Amino acid sequence: MSRSNKVVVPNCKAALNQMKYEIAAELGLTSGGYGGASHDTEFAGELGGTASAAGGSVQWSNLSTRQAGSVGGEITKRLIAQAEQVLGNY
To answer: What are the beta bridge partners of residue 57?
Structure first.
């Protein structure tokens, strides 16, 4: 089975990126003083110098696999919780 990074709902991309940075800040993965050059190349063009919710920035290339997975896992948990709430499946 192959993976695809195709965006299914393009209008949600900005909200998902915002969620990604908020979660990274909540997990303490932000650091101030790096400026806008610290974002990974995948999102650098989209986000420019956007800082995280905590006022710092995230150096994605310096995160461990576990740390990056924690961000992704938390995004998944929150999206599932939102879907359950909308569908009424508590």
So the answer is: 31
